Amino acid sequence: HAGGVVGLEALRGWYGGIDGQPFASKIFGDYTSLVYLTPILGGLIADRWLGRRTTLILGGLFMAAGHFLMAFEGAFLFALLALIVGVGLFKGNIASQVGELYAPNDLRRAMAFQIFYIAINVSVIAAPLISGTLGE
């Protein structure tokens, strides 16, 4: 079904004409690396221009758009791009949002971070199990 993906042939040319599993691995590797790299830019955007709250909202909107675009085969690369931008805007700023809930010396602040990170880790474990069950 890859023939219907807009921009895939141009990307294949950019990667030197590779095909098959190496091509898929290159796309996955670039996507993964950009998801971890772009939060640096998202933090700079929040700190210098948009503010944390606006940047978080934009990040959420871009991620929602990316997941919506995943429903359309031809928009696969646009979906990945929207997810990269969304995660970049969101991921680098969400922890600071948790930190702003309480004053720096408030003991509840440490507990808020513990709950935040526990929720992330539980989600990482539960999501594949739930998705796999629903998929079957």
Mean pLDDT value: 94
Characterize the biggest β-sheet: none
Structural class: mainly alpha
Determine Rg (CA atoms, Å).
18 Å
Unreliable parts: none
Q: Could you give the order of the helices and strands?
A: HHHHH
Question: What is the helix content?
Answer: over 70%
* Through-space gap between termini: 22 Å
The best one-word shape is globular
Number of helices: 5
The number of distinct β-strands equals 0
**Multimeric state of these chains?**
single chain
Short description:
This protein has 136 residues and is mainly alpha-helical. The chain has helices at residues 8-14, 21-50, 52-69, 76-99, 108-135.
Describe this entry's structure for a reader:
This protein is mainly alpha-helical and 136 residues long. The protein is built from 5 helices and no strands. It has helices spanning 8-14, 21-50, 52-69, 76-99, 108-135. The longest helix is centred in the first third of the chain and has 30 residues, at 21-50. The radius of gyration is 18 Å and the shape is globular.
